[in-house]
Amino acid sequence: MLGRGLAVAAVVAALDQATKAMVLVFFGETGCAVRHLPVTRYFDLVLTCNPGVSFGLFNRSGINSLVFTLAAGAIIVVLLFWLSRVRTNLLAVALGLVIGGAAGNVIDRLRFDAVVDFLYFHAGSWGWPAFNLADAAICLGVAAMLLDGMLLRREAPQANRGEDVSR
C-alpha cells in the first residue's frame, strides 16, 4: 500500500505544481500577483497568493509562512508513517491525496512565501474562497479517510473465555 499512496502523492504534487505554473504563465507572472478573469457566470480564473492557512486565516507573510511550512512538513512525516502501516487501498489513496496536496502547498511556500490559488467559484454575492488542486486533493483525501473510518468496518478482537481485550 505504501507504493500506491506514494504514487498518488507524487501525481497530486506534480499536477498541482503544473497547474499553478500554467496559471502563472497564462497571467504573465513569475510569482505572486493579483489577477482576475471571469470565465462563466459562476467561475473565475484568478491568481492570488495566500500566506495564511486555509481560507486566508492568519493571513500574514514572513514568520507565519515558516511556521506553516514546518507544521505541514511535520504533518507529512506523520502521514507517511501512517501510510507505511495502511492495509486498505482506499486509505492508501486517501493518505496519498493529503500528502501530495500538502507537499504541493509546501513547495509554494518555499518558492513564493505563500500558496498560489486560482480557482474561484461564486454565485451572486456569495463566493467560496479561491483554492487550488492541492487544496481539492486534501479535502477529497480527508473525505475518503472519513469514509474509510465510518463505512469499512473492522473486526473487533474476540475475547477468549476470561480474557480482557479492552487494553
Short overview:
The protein is built from four helices and four strands. The chain has helices at 2-26, 63-83, 89-112, 133-151, and strands at residues 35-38, 43-50, 115-123, 126-127.
Structure explained in plain terms:
The chain has 167 residues and is of the alpha+beta class. It has one domain. The protein is built from 4 helices and 4 strands. A 4-stranded antiparallel β-sheet has the order 1-2-3-4. β1 and β2 form a beta hairpin. The model has no long low-confidence stretch (mean pLDDT 88).
Q: Helices and strands in order, then pairings?
A:
Elements: H1 2-26, E1 35-38, E2 43-50, H2 63-83, H3 89-112, E3 115-123, E4 126-127, H4 133-151
Antiparallel strand pairs: 1-2, 2-3, 3-4
Helix pairs in contact: 1-3, 2-3, 3-4
Which short descriptors sum up this protein?
single chain, 4 helices, 167 residues, alpha+beta
Strand content: 5-15%
Query: Strands across the major sheet, in which order?
Result: 1-2-3-4
Q: Which spans of ≥5 residues are poorly predicted at pLDDT below 50?
A: none
Q: How are helices and strands ordered from N to C?
A: HEEHHEEH
Total domain modules:
1
Largest sheet: 4 strands, antiparallel
> Given the structure, what is the number of helices?
4
Strand elements, count: 4
Query: What's the gyration radius in Å?
Result: 19 Å
Mean pLDDT figure:
88
What is the percent of helical residues?
40-55%
- Taken from the alpha-carbon principal axes, the silhouette is elongated
Helix/strand structural class = alpha+beta
- C-alpha termini separation: 27 Å
